[in-house]
């Protein structure tokens, strides 16, 4: 039973890590053909015929290692971002279309309160609504579990801007 418990623990940790990497991969804009081929898993990277201008370096890395590195680079760039931005007056500030905030482990969204364990319906523009159960409500994010067992998060700022909407199921 200890072996099974350890196996389940390792498996769930790996699945969570893969899910986070996939989530990060979908949130960044990559237009390279290499990434398109790799994401379809049709051909391995070692068989791609690529043309580069000199100098270039080719590394033999697994896709997950590359995605992990890319995620780290993107996060580092995000923290350095404000220091590199030109000091021009803002063109237009984003307005919050919806009221959303967390208080004492609860979520307030458009006049209604949501708590951990509650079933909600998540709606994103141009996609079908998804049913989910709230698992955690933090200061700036809400974690939920889908019926297939996968876990994801919504940032409260995404709710405020109207990128996602939720309602009681």
From TrEMBL:
Keywords: Nucleus, Repressor, Transcription, Transcription regulation. Its main location: nucleus. The keyword Secreted does not apply. It is found in: Nucleus. GO terms for biological process: regulation of gene expression. This is Breast cancer metastasis-suppressor 1-like protein. InterPro entries: Sds3 (IPR013907). One of its GO terms (cellular component) is nucleoplasm. The keyword Nucleus applies.
């Amino acid at each position: 039973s200890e072996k099974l418990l350890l196996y389940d623990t390792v498996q769930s940790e790996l699945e969570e890590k893969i899910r986070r990497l996939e989530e990060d991969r979908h949130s960044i804009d990559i237009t390279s053909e290499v990434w398109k081929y790799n994401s379809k898993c049709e051909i391995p990277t070692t068989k791609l015929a690529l043309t580069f201008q000199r100098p270039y370096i080719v590394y033999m890395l697994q896709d997950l290692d590359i995605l992990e590195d890319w995620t780290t680079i993107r996060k580092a760039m995000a923290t350095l971002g404000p220091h590199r931005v030109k000091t021009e007056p803002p063109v237009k500030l984003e307005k919050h279309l919806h009221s959303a905030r967390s208080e004492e482990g609860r979520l307030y969204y458009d006049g209604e309160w949501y708590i951990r364990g509650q079933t909600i319906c998540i709606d994103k523009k141009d996609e079908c609504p998804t049913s989910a159960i709230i698992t955690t409500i933090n200061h700036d994010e809400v974690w939920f579990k889908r019926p297939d067992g996968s876990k994801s998060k919504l940032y409260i700022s995404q709710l405020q801007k109207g990128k996602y909407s939720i309602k009681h199921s």
